[in-house]
Design goal:
single chain; nine-stranded mixed β-sheet; 9 helices; 9 strands; about 40% helix
Length: about 250
């Protein structure tokens, strides 16, 4: 009986293999962003929806920069796992930008309860402005976070001046591969890149799924949660110590 590790290719999701996949992609495609691609060329739009970890995003950005390729990092204002106003997270994003990667808006449909395209545009303008004020960088594209309801049918190329990563053009004319939930949900990226049958391609990855060692998706998730918890504890203990205050326990 085939194990989950084999069925879902757990070994694909290491940082070493990530670098290898970038090199494989570069053999058949030119890396572009959502505002500089040419429909007539064999381009790949390499995209990260940063759901859980800005620190993992920074690691991938460093690998990409060392390989001479560019990716777009879509940031969520309503993540349950990181705070874009937190000092250390802000530093991570600035480092990603310094490496030459653009940022986009990862728009959480469920948080807002989008009712119409007009409502969507109003909300996108608001969140775009926040991202641009925090990071002092123009935001030119957005992606949906778990689109539901009316958002499923919002497929225009642009809303509120932002390129829509889920536009009809990208869904109909561009190949797609995603690692959502820590496994290849539709097609394995290795196979897609080796076959090279897609004239152009959009690759969606989530940085938290790529780690040093081979792990199951659940283990990778737990690692992000535990790492976040340890950083919070260390920050609190350091802060009270710096101010000469005890961190009281029962003993």
């Amino acid at each position: 009986m085939m194990s989950n590790a084999d069925r879902y290719h757990f070994a694909d999701f290491t940082l070493e293999n990530y670098r290898r996949l970038l090199r494989l992609a570069r053999q058949n495609y030119v890396f572009r962003t959502y505002t500089d691609f040419d429909a007539g060329e064999r381009f790949v739009l390499w995209r990260h929806d940063v759901d859980l970890s800005a620190h993992a995003a920074r690691r991938l950005a460093e690998i990409e920069a060392s390989e001479g390729v560019v990716a777009t990092y879509f940031l969520c204002l309503h993540s349950e796992f990181y705070n874009l106003l937190e000092r250390e997270i802000v530093a991570c994003i600035h480092q990603i930008l310094a490496l030459g990667h653009p940022i986009g808006l990862h728009f959480d449909v469920g948080f807002h309860g989008v009712q119409s395209e007009e409502h969507l545009e109003d909300l996108l303008r608001r969140e775009k402005r926040i991202l641009e004020e925090v990071f002092e960088r123009e935001v030119l594209a957005f992606s949906f976070h778990i689109p539901t309801g009316p958002a499923l049918y919002c497929r225009a190329f642009r809303y509120a001046g932002l390129v829509n990563a889920g536009a009809e053009y990208f869904q109909g004319q561009v190949g797609y591969c995603s690692d959502s939930n820590g496994y290849w949900r539709i097609r394995r990226l290795e196979d897609v890149l080796r076959e090279g049958s897609d004239r152009c391609l959009q690759v969606l990855t989530h940085p938290e799924w790529w780690q040093d060692a081979v792990m199951s998706p659940r283990q990778r998730l737990d690692r992000c949660i535990q790492g976040r918890a340890e950083k919070m504890r260390a920050w609190y203990e350091r802060t009270v110590q710096e101010h000469g205050r005890p961190n009281l326990d029962w003993e």
